[in-house]
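quick one: iron/sulfur cluster bound model?
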Amino acid sequence: MKIELLKLDKKQNKLSFILRNANHAFANAIRRNAIEEVPVMAIEDVEFRNNSSVIYDEIIAHRLGLIPLTTDLKSYNLPDKCKCNGKGCAQCQLKLILKVLGQGVVYSSDITSTDPKVKPTYQKIPIVKLLKGQKLEFEATANLGKGKDHTKWSPGLVYYKDMPIININKQCKNPEVVVEQCPQNVFEVKNNNLVLNKDNLLNCHLCNACVDICEPKGTITLDKNDKDFIFYVESWGQLESKEIIIEALKIIKDTSDEFIKEIKKKPVKEKASKK
Ligand code: SF4
Ligand SMILES: [Zn+2]
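yep, here:
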């Protein structure tokens, strides 16, 4: 197995890489663990002290849950794995407070966190618009959770596609049309011949348009390699895009270790017969 990093965009918190010599099952295990099992922080409970805005408490609470919070995985436990057994303690939850008197838009930047490491990732997320004299005041509780329980706890979008294999087998009679119709600019014309634009080859999303358009039929053949996968990771902002994949792989490793430990144990029937 080999990893080839294609792009790491720290500003946009995006990552792309090629996973080589793997298989669909492993590629999909990375994807599913990344979006469903890697925990992140999100607001779970909101206690409203005052809300004279035009929006109901429930709607504001829903909006608050969807605000991405910077996540510090080293300092917090998942509630069900915490020594407090999910009752709530400093190791598994924190408070976020807001108190605003209108008029104006209340933004995510108005929220004050009791832990500076856990705060809204983006400052300009509008929560509600207050008219003159209207108030919004609440104390919210955030905790770690998993995307499989609610999408507010999903760290981002992770997807992959098969590596395209494109061959131009003979001279294409309508190269300009193919260049124009390919949505990903995978082709170019050089000396009246259709050739591949190597810089854009990985952008091909296997739509098959070039195969259908190119004359005569059979000039272009399109296939996919089922051992190499092009991955794209787009973080919602709670974790670094690289961290999402690293955490997903740690979860796969821990689950596999647990599986090995369990399978080494004596069969239940054998234990019973010895008694
Ligand atoms: S399959 Fe679609 S995206 Fe890929 S090269 Fe052909 S036209 Fe372009
Ligand atoms: Zn706890």
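The chain is about 25% helix and 35% strand.
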